[in-house]
Fold this protein.
Amino acid sequence: MRKKASPSVRPSDVGFTIIEVLIALTASLLLMLGLTRAYKLIGDQVTQSQAELELSSVLRDVAMRIRDELQRATVDPNPETEQQTGDGYLVYHEGPFTHATTILGDGFDPAQPEYFPTSRFGDFDDYLAFTVQAKENSPFAGFIPWGVLEAHRARSAGTSWVAPPGFDPTLLVPFYSDLAEIAYWAAPRWARVKTLGTQDGTIDYEANSGYPLVPDVDGNLLPDRMDLHRRVLLIRPDLNMTPAEMNISNLNRGVPTFTPDVLTVGVFTLPFMRRTNQGWIILPLTLRGGNEPFFAGSSAIIAPGNWAANTTTFSPNWLAGVARMQQVMDLSISRAPDSWSVPRTDASDTTATSYGVPSPIVRANSLPELTSPDNRFGHVRVPGPLINGGAGTSMPQLALSPPHPYLINRENIFPAQANHNATPPAGPFPYGRFTLVSNLRPEFSLADRVTDARSGVGTPITASVNRGGSDVIAEDILGFDIKIFDETAPKYVWLGLDQSSGTPNNDDQDGNTGFDVDELGLPGTDDEIVTMSDLRLTEVLLDDDGRGTTGPFRLVDRGDFVDLNYTRLPGGAMRGLRHYNGTTYRPIPPARRNQLASPFSGIEVEPTAGTDGVIFPKSWQQSGRFVLSFGASDTLSSFYQPTYDTWTNAFDRDAFDQEGISTPSGGFPFGAVNGSIRENGLQPLLLPNNPAAPSNTITTPVSYRQWSLIQGGLANEGEFVGQDSGLQTMGGLATLAPSTLPIRAVAPVQAKLKALQVTIRLFDVSAEQIRQQTVVEDF
């Protein structure tokens, strides 16, 4: 029987609906997003860990390097150093910034009361330098033009000397020494001149003010990027040679000699070799009128140049001439002072003379010579015309940059002439770009290209040295803060708004409900510890900061690391040289003055009965590191460099007149500037809030090196023969009798250095990580 065919079965559809596809796609995207997020978190964690590791590694390396080198410092930090012992030096300069500067400077935002946009910046304008002994069998190394070293080999070899293959006197070659001076400082990444959109490596300056330019893209008046620099300058006095010795060597080798200056034929200087038609001749690297072309490609850059020429240019010789030389030589060098010209022999002699002025002749320093600040890396003497229009020089100063725009913009701390955007006044004036207070000048940082274009020379030259960044040991730093230990620095406790120690009526079982040290800081208390680095310092010193503070401050301890001159720093809690309390300038109460008086605080209490003044320590003025200006500008400062310096006793023994001038009532040392601003310590008891002094009969000595009648004549054996050495005679003011009190150029701080604390703060831009490390070295 034939079966009936079964009906056909329609197979079911195979595939996904649109909804199913979308669901699957969404799930896949969510999975991928989750994986991406997970990978990002892992990547961020790796980046963060790597940044932390790198920051920690750099910090540890820098901190250990500083500690190791401080431990091998050649000098016992106890002013004043004997030049004869040849111990070298240690100098620490405290810049106007502190760790609190950007907190105080940030504007208050009610919406974010605890947010300080620029508070990541710390203290970044301090400077530390000292002489160091190398480790055994591990000498310091540096570079120097080949022609300097080969000149000594030629002299030693005599007639057997043959120029080495490929000898190029300007080629930088390594050399070594067991002694060196080492300098540490933080600096912005200075703006460089651009040619057709490309940086040519030379420093750029503001067209009007002459300030070195600092890139500031975000406009917060703070550098976009900063680096920590370390220069190692080898101490090799054996590289010196007199012109007479050079000529003898030339004669022995049968090559032409040169005609030396008869007055400087016996002055030690650096030699250099130059090729002539008759052979290689040894010549002085620097002469009274110029220098050999010792830069790459035999570029004839003027360095160091005439110290007294073109003193008001953007980068004059007196300020940056030696720095240009040190772009191509890691050698400790200095200008030889003019000891060969004819000095004046009487205070009434008005004959111009260069006696004692830094000369164009450069020499390699010895360790004993480095005890004197004149001869150290980064130190200069400011020409007299820039100070007062007279002859002579300032005492040695650090070659620092002009006032920082962040501070200028926030407080009238500096004279108006130092305004960052203003054209400096015409004529000699001790402000403007030569107000030496901030970071070390950019000319002292190693660069790729160096030029004398801003020194005022006739035909400027630029040379490629290709050394930019080789002195940088840490990039993107936010702070390089140095503090000094002051065993008398007070520590206070603020009792809070309840005006009681601990919590009210808590006698901690001792039966005493009054002020009790044992109760300070108990749980629930509003007590606060206030140190000399605290933002409440103004409230401590002035009792009431104008903000309603009512609780008393009690002195409970002494001894702490402090910023040198902490009560006077423009970026500190006191906001500058005057005592600023938020609304007015006020005197410090007598009780606080006595508590704060210290060689390191910036306050010296005048012992004269009945006075109510607070003066700057006289030793700062006698060192020449501080020159007070007042009158129309009240108590502002022109030269003001808070510095701890091991100093030297050489100023008491050299042949130059620099032991200072004492100013009695009515005296006008340095003359008058614009008829209103006078310099130095006349009327030293000037009240911070009152231009009238309670007494103008107290004399205050101020040290500088002088040679002209306008500054008065100081009796000195070397310059004024036949007069009592070290006694003030006030030349030009015939009605004033000579003083019977000797005046000395003394160390700015006359106390032994117990310990230094160095804090380095680094920033990893990509990972947005900040780390800092502190090292303490006990002396």
Remarks:
- The mean pLDDT is 77.
- Residues 83-342+355-475 form one domain.
- The longest strand covers residues 477-494.
- The longest helix spans residues 18-71.
